Structure formats: C-alpha cells, structure tokens
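Hey, can you fold this one?
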Amino acid sequence: MRTSQERVTKPATENIEGVKMAEYTHEWLCQQIVDNAGDAVIFGDAEGKVRLWNAGAERIFGFRAEEILGKSMDLIIPENLRERHWEGYDQTMQTGRTQYSRSLLAVPALRQDGTRISIEFTIVLVRDAAGKLLGPAAIIRDVTARWNQDKELRKRLAALEAQVAGFTGAAKSTS
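Sure. Predicted structure:
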C-alpha cells in the first residue's frame, strides 16, 4: 500500500470514462491549489516583506502581485494595529511558535483603496530543510459581509432589549 505522499507524487495513469489522467506531482498540485484558491495565501519573509501573493490576495486586497511583492505587509495593516502586529510577528520569528496555526485570528485589514475590511486567518510557519524558520504564511478569508451582518444583528438585538427593559420598567412603576 502506498502512502498519501506516494499516491500524489508517483506517476498515476488511470482510465476514467475513456480519459487518460495526466501525471501530477505533489508540487504541481500544491501550486495549483495556492494559485487558484479563493482565499488569500500570503507568505512574509523574516523581515516582513511579502514574498508570495496569490490571486485570492489580489481579489481580497486589490493589489496585484507585482505591486506588493518585496514590500512591507504594512500596506494591508491598519496604522493603529501595526505596532501590535509587528510585536507578534517578531515574537513568532524569535520563538518559532504561533498560537494561530490552529486558532483563527479575526482582525481588520486594508484594501489598496484604503477601505477597511474584516478578515480571518490562520498561520503556517514555513521552515527550510534544516528546520530554520523562513517566515509565516497566512491563509486569509474576507469576512466583511458576515461581520457587517453580525454588527447589524447586535444593533437590532440591543434596540429590542432596550424596548423590553422599557416595558418592564413601565410595568414596575404602574404596580
């Protein structure tokens, strides 16, 4: 029995409904997934420069890859959050650990046109063959529409709770 890695990297030719399947390598499949994902996939090097920026990142943030590669991630981080971001980034680079490899982080971000959006993401720490940390990669989803819906629901709930409190207060004062 082959391992999952062997199933992907070993040549495979199958005949499905008369169509011969091409041979796909693990690297090719990974490239296709990253390049075509709807979510943003971004990699920053040890200095915090953007080194990978996929089509999902272009769609979410509005920057084309050639406009942001080699530049600071500050371009997508709201100014009031930059200090906190870089403290966490530096700590991750020094310790080689992050709590966001399994936990989802929700923060505001900036689009190229200056619009603030809400994003959620996880981090993958990328290491070289010797285990040295090269930098973090982030898998990012734009959740602005959901965040706005939740905000509106919270607002409506607060208004209803105020109405109920008003009714209860009025009932107590008449009794």
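The first helix runs from residue 4 to 9. Let me know if you want another pass with a different chain boundary.
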